[in-house]
Amino acid sequence: MKAPSSYSIINPKFIVLIVIIFWLAGCSSMFDKHIEYSFVEPDSYPVIKAIGYAPLSAQPGESESQKMLMALKVSKLEAYRELAEQVYGQSLSADMTVKGAIAQNDGLKSQVKGLIRGARVVKSYAVGDTYTTELELDMKRVHDLYITQSKPRKVKRVTYY
What we know:
Helix content: 25-40%
Strand order of the largest sheet: 2-6-5
Strand content: 35-45%
Number of helices: 3
Shape: elongated
Largest sheet: 3 strands, antiparallel
Oligomer: single chain
Low-confidence stretches: none
Order of helices and strands: HEEHEEEEHE
Structural class: alpha+beta
């Protein structure tokens, strides 16, 4: 004679447990779905402008044309720096040393860090001893560059079948 088993294959609790496990495992793949996406586009696009300056006479170079080329490069970089300030902001850090209620040393450091894509040089010209470069950043162009690289999406519709 066999001893009674508490876990028999015919036990109704065991059968219910098996059915529940198979049912839960099958729920995730019970339906297949198709997702349609739409691209999100802002209502308006601003145009950001920046101007960079560089003194001609202070540039290194043996001839006036070399100094002018250096000033052109510096003014362009300054204009890009100004664009980066407008887009990303500026990081500031300050320190001050006080001794006997008198300021001994007071310092301020500024830093700009960012990536500018899609900027366009509007004008580069000399005015007296200063070389000037004007840039503009059309945010529509930046948005188009962003869309081509990252392809941001918004769920438009989900269809289950």
